[in-house]
Every structure is written in C-alpha cells, then in structure tokens.
Design a protein that fits this description.
With 155 residues, this protein is α/β, with parallel strands linked by helices. The chain is 35% helix and 22% strand.
Length: 155
C-alpha cells in the first residue's frame, strides 16, 4: 500500500472565519499541487480526511484532480490525534492500492515518522500546507519516495 500525506492548504484565520475554510491562496496551492500530481501520473484509490472544513476542501480538490471518487471522513485524524491508533486502523504495508490522508500538523509529521522509523517523535519529512508526500512500503515500515510542494509544482 502506498500512502500519501497532504496537509490542508492555508486556511483563513479563525477571527475571519471560525470554520477555517481555505483561503484563496490555500485553494490555489492545493490545486497546483494536485494538478502536478495528476500530470505525473499519481493515482490514489481512497482519500480520507479529518472532517475539519480546510481538510475536507483540500481532499475534494485532490480527488477532483486525480479522478478519485472514494473520499470520506475518518475519526482520529485531528491535529493531536493518536498516530499509532490511526496507523493500526488505516494502514497495512502489505495491502495493494493507495491511500491519501489529508489532515493537519503535528499529526501528519508524527504519522510519517512512525511509518518510516517506528518513532513518532522522529523527524523524517517536513509536511507543509498543500504539500503532498508519498510513502512506499519498505519491509515492515515505509520510505519517503518524494514530496511535492506548491513551489515545486509551480516550477
């Protein structure tokens, strides 16, 4: 199973929008990364998100660009959620296919560290707004295959 991690795009400040929807910059950044991923041949079988509006909007943009119709909310993906529980519920290195998790920091950084090193406190990749990171199976763990940031996607 290939695992893709995407931090939601930049959100509006809570003072302006208590639901924290994506800002215009956030929408454009997720769109450019998603289109770049599609142009590179990325295919994702399932996309899950935390249910927070900024993650939902980012997941839908990614799904539209990649032609993925299996998009849904999964509990346990909030910023401070238990990464070990999420890993156990969602990720099977031996499974076929691909899964994208659209969420938040520090959850995504900790999940990447757990999948790659077994230590959620390690630092293996800097997940950032609108960035997409691909992890591939490497034995019982995963390895970072690549990352697309908005700057890379814009060329």
């Amino acid at each position: 199973m290939d695992v893709y991690l995407m931090q939601h795009g930049e959100a509006l400040p809570a003072e302006l929008d208590p639901s924290r929807s994506l800002s215009e910059v956030g929408q454009r950044s997720v769109e450019v990364v998603s289109r770049h991923a599609a142009a590179c041949g990325v295919r994702i079988d399932q996309i899950v998100h935390s249910g927070k509006l900024r993650a939902v909007e980012s997941a839908l943009i990614l799904a539209r660009a990649l032609g993925c119709s299996d998009v849904g909310h999964v509990d346990g993906l909030s910023p401070g959620a238990d990464v070990e529980a999420a890993m156990a519920a969602l990720i099977d290195p031996a499974a076929v296919g691909s899964l994208a998790i659209v969420g938040h920091l520090p959850f995504l950084d900790r999940l990447a560290a757990l999948l790659v090193t077994g230590d959620p406190g390690a630092h293996v990749v800097a997940v950032r707004n609108a960035g997409l990171v691909k992890l591939v199976p490497a034995g019982q763990r995963f390895a970072v295959a690549w990352a697309i940031t908005p700057e890379v996607a814009r060329g």
